[in-house]
Specification:
By secondary structure, the protein is mainly α. It has one domain (9-204, 235-413): Growth Hormone, Chain: A (Up-down Bundle), CATH 1.20.1250.20. It is 82% helix and 0% strand. It has 19 helices and no strands. The chain has helices at residues 2-13, 16-32, 35-45, 50-66, 68-78, 80-100, 104-118, 120-132, 137-164, 170-193, 207-217, 229-234, 240-269, 275-287, 292-302, 304-324, 328-356, 362-390, 393-413. The longest helix is centred in the middle third of the chain and has 30 residues, at 240-269. The radius of gyration is 21 Å and the shape is globular. It starts with a helix and ends with a helix.
Length: 415
């Protein structure tokens, strides 16, 4: 029994890092997606329009995108866990600033800081978890994304509770700051007690580990004379498959940020859905992110590329129906189905990316990919807000459908 108990504890301890990293991702998503359900409140409190609220979310995403490559290079040098811990402290502080913002200008600065401080997480976490769980990377990433997206699902519920209980919108950011502190402390304690990691653990592996990792990913072991420094980060982009899939991720990011930022307002203004119901549907859109835990194992079993193409197709069809229907029941169904496609796509996207980037310095390369991907995504909220202001939300979301369809076509062409 002691042996069995010991084995059980050892097996459970293997997932401590996954759960700790996922807990931080939960807070990242919670803070990022506090903003969209507060757009109607900001319009009243600060007297701003849809272009300004779209610019607020775009500013957050620009800050988020800008730190991807720097965070990756720092993680390659000083250790991913150190970067994650420092970021946890920093985004807790950014949430405090947002809670105290007296003007829209200060809130704008706080949004940028939330973006900058939450930005390092996934660039560091994806290679770290892929190395830690090399036999099931898509599964590990699916678990992280599922737990993280629960933060996105909880965010509008916390906003609704804060407003209905007359606590005010600022209380939602105070909650975020408190949870950030708790999860960061838990992560540091987990890393401190882990047998394989320390706060200064780098993401690079030994030569033997690189060989095994390369074999598992279906790639050749890197040449010992491979370029280093900036040249080493630039060299992988000579691969047509990586560049092509980078463009796919950029198109997806544009569409994802448009939908995630404006879905509540779109449902209210274009479809006539009551605000309370729109908030519930927005929460449901994130609640179905639990399917990411299933998408990961499917990606490990049948291949991440095949899985991501199917899920991207689901997102295209559901978003197209969202634009064309006015039936309430159909709206409920397509919001859920769109959530399945959008959320399920991301863990298998990341797993596929890790088959295209080299093992050495992968956090830096992934940082470049995510900088471009998120930079494209940062443009979409302000673009959608502008089109909605001068034309209609239906036209803006129709453009999103076209972007998603282009992503599917490009993925098939550049496989």
């Amino acid at each position: 029994m002691r042996l069995t108990g010991g084995r059980a504890r050892a097996a459970a301890s293997q997932y401590d890092v996954l759960l700790a990293v996922s807990g931080l991702w939960f807070v990242v998503q919670f803070l990022r997606y506090l903003l969209p359900p507060l757009f109607p409140t900001f319009r009243v409190v600060f007297g701003v329009g849809p272009t300004a609220t779209g610019a607020l979310f775009s500013a957050l995403m620009v800050g988020y995108a800008a730190v991807q490559f720097p965070a990756g290079t720092v993680a390659d040098r000083v250790g991913g866990p150190s970067v994650l811990a420092a970021a946890g402290v920093a985004f807790g502080g950014a949430a405090v600033l947002a809670a105290a913002a007296p003007t829209f200008a200060v809130l704008f600065v706080a949004a940028v800081l939330v973006g900058v401080t939450t930005g390092p997480h996934k660039t560091v976490a994806v290679p770290l978890l892929s190395r830690r769980y090399p036999d099931r990377p898509a599964t590990a990433l699916g678990v992280m994304d599922t737990i993280g997206q629960a933060g996105g699902a909880v965010a509008p519920l916390v906003v609704a509770a804060s407003l209905s209980l007359a606590l005010g919108w600022r209380a939602a950011f105070v909650v975020g700051a408190g949870v950030a502190l708790v999860t960061t402390v838990a992560f540091v304690r987990c890393v401190g007690s882990d047998g394989e990691l320390s706060l200064r653990s780098t993401i690079e592996t030994t030569t033997d580990e690189q060989s095994l990792d390369s074999e598992a990913r279906g790639r050749d072991t890197e040449d010992t004379d491979a370029p280093t420094g900036w040249a080493g980060y630039r060299a992988p982009f000579a691969d047509r498959r990586l560049v092509g899939f980078l463009l796919v991720t950029m198109l997806f990011s544009f569409a994802w940020n448009a939908v995630s930022a404006f879905l509540p307002l779109y449902l209210v203004d274009a479809k006539g859905v009551p605000p309370a119901m729109a908030g519930l549907l927005y929460g449901g859109f994130f609640a179905v992110s639990v399917t990411q835990a299933a998408a990961g194992p499917v990606g490990d079993r049948v291949g991440p590329f095949r899985t991501l193409v199917v899920l991207l197709g689901v997102a295209v069809v559901a978003t197209a129906v969202l634009v064309t229907t006015t039936d309430t029941v159909v709206l409920v169904v397509v919001v859920v189905v769109a959530g399945l496609g959008f959320h399920g796509f991301r863990p298998v996207r990341d797993a596929h990316l890790m088959t295209l980037v080299p093992s050495s310095g992968d956090a830096g390369v992934l940082g470049i990919v995510r900088t471009l991907m998120l930079g494209a995504g940062a443009l979409s909220p302000v673009a959608v807000g502008y089109v909605a202001s001068i034309a209609s939300y239906d036209l803006a979301f129709g453009g999103v459908v076209a972007v998603l369809a282009a992503a599917v076509g490009l993925a098939l062409l550049t496989r």
